[in-house]
């Protein structure tokens, strides 16, 4: 009996030592809310074809869903569109003199339904990114196809505007590319603010933990109610999300207030999107604005 009691105590201590800490939830302030809204509009602008083929121009959204961006003094420094790669990686690099920003914005998938249907779960090893890290093969290949073009233009912009903040952003598939790009640039010694909307999982647990702990700029992984896309590829296939998550609980077609956004801290937390009941594609299209309206 004593041995069994002792065994139970040891087992209890083992479980306590290995327990996953409960996720921390806290509301956001108005400053964070304003940034979340601004960069949602920068992500929306990457869906507009006029921002993908006219470097040197002001960043505009003909459908009217990026008024904060249009109100700023912006110039597109570089634009890219690689139709030969997985997901057709596209986007732009812009300078925002009003807000003192350098923004690299990646476009989401132009055909969400087909993209989800074609999404594979293959992880590829990339220990050069971080020890033990594995990345979604398609996302990594897409980034690799455009990295040599994007990297020097970003570095040139940083040299020209040394006191500006570098931000990487995107929605959906574009968010996945932004996460990878930010990780690479942080590894190179650059501070990067990462604002992502409706991002799918991009890699294994080692990668999620690494991005969470990089400390070279903030992570703002934004989700909306029961948006389906942040739940793929599934954890059962070896995929995990980095922290923190900023979960919007207000419904579609509704203005978002500070009370509607909760910061959820913890890798793979179920206190936000992953714990919401059901799933929705429409929730994926509404992040402060109809974010993919230009597509």
UniProtKB/TrEMBL annotation:
Example GO BP: lipid catabolic process
Domain Fungal lipase-type residues, every copy: 103-235
Keywords: Carbohydrate metabolism, Hydrolase, Polysaccharide degradation, Serine esterase, Signal, Xylan degradation
Phosphoprotein found in the keyword field: no
Signal peptide from the UniProt entry: 1-19
EC id: 3.1.1.73
Catalysed reactions, as listed in the record: feruloyl-polysaccharide + H2O = ferulate + polysaccharide
GO molecular function term, any single one: feruloyl esterase activity
Domain Mono-/di-acylglycerol lipase N-terminal, chain residue ranges per copy: 13-74
Assigned protein family: Belongs to the AB hydrolase superfamily. FaeA family.
Protein name in UniProt: feruloyl esterase
Organism listed in the record: Aspergillus coremiiformis
